[in-house]
Amino acid sequence: MPYLMTTVSDVDAVSPASHPGCHAVRSCRFHHVTHEPVPSVLDPHRLLYVLWTWDEHSKPARFEPLVQYFEHLGRRCKPERQRRTARMVGLLSDFVRAHARSSSPEPVWAAFPEALVGGTEHLTGPLRDLLWPPASPRSARARLGLLNGFLEWLGDRAGSRTSLAPWIDPLLAARQAAHRAKHATLPFRAVSWGAHARGRAAAWGHKPVVHDRDAVAFDEARLEDLLFFGFRRRGARAEDGELGLDLRDVLITILLHAGGLRSCEPFHLFVDDVGVDPNDPESAEVRLYHPEEGWAPAHAQAPRRRRDAVRREEYLREWHGLVPRTDGPSGQRAGWKHLRLDRPAESYAVVRWFPTEWGRVFLRLFGLYLNQQRPESVGHPYLFVCDHGAQSGRPYTLQSYRQAHAVAVRRLGLNVAKALGTTPHAHRHAYGRRLAAAKLPKGTVQIAMHHRSPLSQEVYTQPTLQQVAEGMEEHSKRLRGRRGSVSALLSHGGEA
């Protein structure tokens, strides 16, 4: 099953290989990003994101320094990071060319982050032709951080090269000169570009993330409607033991709402990751393994007869010819956030049901799902699979679940929006608020939500704006009958 190793060549809208003159579509666009085979001695099937650049008089050429940078990072550089980095280097290529033709007095290293955050539609000349929309400071900070990592690596290699690219040599030289002038006593890599950017260019600086949004949770009163009406199969009839439900989507939603998982995490589960709780034979114990470092299933451990355990990355590669979903192409990829592990040696965390009755519901529906809806032979170990059409038997995707969840929400007469708490991640918010309402200790909440930092739970457990208003009104009523209250002052007209 080599579907996780297929080439994705349509990363950008226009391919230079098929349209050599594609720069005519947009006069300031001279780059393209593809996902294509770049074989190595150790991995002849390796896929990397590749940046192609050109100018008005040349054909597209692969930008080799970026390929070498990805090879230098190795497995630390995940496909999504490769794609975003390649895209940022391509934008930088376009900007340097446009800046050279403009009359801007600002140096490139200061003008680029300013244009990224503020957009270019308000500028004049060639820079305006870039047609960049404004970006939020938070988004720009993350994207510039990726670019800065590449340029730092490039600076380390600067002394041993002759020429990298006509558009990047002047930028690298200007950046090094600025560092030497302002930070003469510090090594080149010690300072971020953020020290030089002005105004909105302060997005280069790295600041701790502050959660200032109201984390809206899915309405608890509508959960059963969502599970048993929203996810009902079209034309299904409850007969012969069939519930008439899409059990796959129901199980995923239970994992999010009653187990507190992030929306991407269920898509890494193997069938063998679900077992019986040793403390309750009627409840399920679900183990969430690290998609690469987690231990492979037991049947893959015994034949090897070696001291070190077989990890999932090796198991997927050798037994199934696959790569972990963190490394798969965009269609099959599932993200992973470094969560707190209950068993670091085996690299897994346990799903903690709350209320605990949901563990029994999950185990019963899990058995029905395996017997009635999951194909018997699919050629891979993943629990959730597509069960119809051309994709039948392949691992189920996060995008497909989001679409199914949206359809189920609309069946209830609700609108789909993050601000309304009707998206998949809102179930995790509901889980966190349920833990907070039960007044469980913060340490318990941290473990249940698999947070590595105790501060991470605050966005999920802090009171909602409505709860703040109701609480303040309730306490205001208690104060109204007391002497010296605001109402007493008002009754006297505010006289001193």
From TrEMBL:
Keywords on record: DNA recombination
Region Disordered, residue ranges: 476-496
GO molecular function: DNA binding
Record GO biological process: DNA integration; DNA recombination
Domain Tyr recombinase: 213-473
Domain of life: Bacteria
Keyword Coiled coil on entry: no
Protein name (database record): Phage integrase family protein
Source organism per UniProt: Tahibacter aquaticus
